[in-house]
Amino acid sequence: MSGLKQILFLTLHEKRDVALAVFFGFLAGVAGVALLASSGYLISRAALTSQMTILIVMGACLKLFGLASALSRYAERLFSHRATFTMLSNLRSSFFEKLSPLAPGIFSHYRSGDLLARIVGDVESLQNFLLRVLYPPIVLLLVFLSTIFFSAYFSMGIAAVIAIGAFLTVFAVPAVFAMRQRTIHNAARASRASLSTESAELLHGFRDLKINQRLEQKQQQLEDFSGDYGSQQRKEGLEENLSQSVNGLVALLASFFVLGLGAYFTAAGELDGLYLAMLVMISLGAFENVSPMAAFPAHFEENRKAASRLDEVAPAAPVLKGDGQPPQWPFDITLDNINFTYRGEERAALTDISLQIEPGTKTAIVGPSGSGKSTLLQLLLNILEPDEGTIRLGGRELAELDQEKVWESMNAVLQENHFFFGTIKSNLLIANESASDEQLEAALSQVQLAELALSMKVGEKGQNLSGGQKQRLAIARAIIRRKPLWILDEPVSSVDSITAKAIYSELFSSGKDESFIIVSHDLTALSQMDQIIVMDGGKIVESGTYDSLMQKKSYFYELKQIEKDVFA
Ligand SMILES: Nc1ncnc2c1ncn2[C@@H]1O[C@H](COP(=O)(O)OP(=O)(O)OP(=O)(O)O)[C@@H](O)[C@H]1O
């Protein structure tokens, strides 16, 4: 469904509130026109008659229309805003539902600042869809139709002038400005997106920029983006003012025409002079309502663009859509002739990968940096999908399984782990909300972090923890989760080798029947593994047990020799 259509669908989902808002908006508009019409009639009548009853009735009508206009306006605001906020909340939920399955790989398609601009800026701009785009033309059309029918009773000529004025102010002028807005608005939106993206980059890379003395340069760049956005906003403002002035002028001219034509008809005896002031007041009252149409072009363009940017997000990234049940543990994992190339890259990250992992075994994936180890783990986690070949868990194709359920059987510790602002305890409870303090403390001891109190504060992104502490905390989380399939990507690369060995021996002794798939640069602790997969340039160059690979005296043996020489 295209962007605006979906927003329309979500808005019309609140059909009761939308209908009530239109009804009360119409009532407020018509009551406003009736108020002015009756005041015009009252002025003429008071000049021509001394009948007190008519004047009293007209005075009462004035009060009634005034009250009806105010109450209807209140009801219109109430229902239209209620419909808008419900629509916005539905939109946020539906956008989040679309985004959620793409989450692990989404940053390879969108920069975080761009996503933030879409989630916050674009969703917020859509709050104007009902209030400033959909509903003003409908209400205005209804008010004008009633006004035209009423005026036609007294003078067809005056009704025609009002009809032409309505066409110009409700359709023609806004349509011309909507076309002009398109270019200006696209430029403003593009510079807003650049500003947001660059701001997010500056925030994330602040430390690195400072260390490399590039902060000022980046700041200057950001100021340029901000200046550019400011000037685009000014242009938008000027255009909106121009649209308002032109529309106001056309409305005023229409009222002048009504007056001129009315005077002519009265002089020619075609119109009772008693109604002239009333008809002029009617046109003034009706055209008073057109002011929201001046802002219509800007809002329409903004909403059209925002809706299509939100709509873009979903199809851009592959949706992992399987819903099958993963097999019950224990299950084996097989990879058959897997090929994978990152989007936009020419070189394949993985070529012809085939391997078998039996349940309850320990597999190490080793190889030089960039050889494809982490990519292989991401395929196993179903975060990436292979271009060719199949991955099976217990004989069932991974692509057809429900991703969330697959993760339910895994303890994954990847190279980057996020820590939230809070305490050690709150960060551990993410893995299992019902874990007791004793369980949390036991997990901390298993990763040699017994010295950290559960109540210790954790800064944003775990800033107050060392690299090794963060890695161990991530393993502690996985221990608390305790699932039978461990997928670990360089889990102790920042931990000293004695502590790393102690952690591995804790994990292996407490998880005897569990499967471990570990990516590691460290070749020292590999003798305990059942299988070692050696990768280079995206291919498996050899595999086997530690002893068999050492006896073979091939690639792995040479890596070991290099390691020995370096650390000798
Ligand atoms: N998101 C990505 N987009 C494009 N190319 C990528 C992406 N991530 C990795 N690559 C490329 O894929 C290849 C394999 O990378 P991968 O991270 O799997 O290697 P690795 O063996 O895990 O390296 P390391 O040991 O340094 O973590 C590399 O050439 C890398 O540049």
From TrEMBL:
TM stretches of this protein: 20-43, 49-72, 133-152, 158-179, 249-267
Domain of life the protein comes from: Bacteria
UniProt key word Metal-binding: no
All residue ranges annotated as the ABC transporter domain in the record: 333-562
Keywords carried by this UniProt record: ATP-binding, Cell membrane, Membrane, Nucleotide-binding, Transmembrane, Transmembrane helix, Transport
Biological process according to GO: cell redox homeostasis; glutathione transmembrane transport
Alphabetical list of SMART domains matching this protein: AAA
A Pfam family: ABC_tran
Protein's membrane topology: Multi-pass membrane protein
Location relative to the cell: Cell membrane
GO molecular function: ABC-type transporter activity; ATP binding; ATP hydrolysis activity; ATPase-coupled lipid transmembrane transporter activity
One cellular component (GO) term of this entry: plasma membrane
Domain annotation ABC transmembrane type-1: ranges: 19-302
Protein name (record): ATP-binding cassette subfamily C protein CydC
Species, as recorded: Planococcus koreensis
Taxonomic lineage: Bacteria, Bacillati, Bacillota, Bacilli, Bacillales
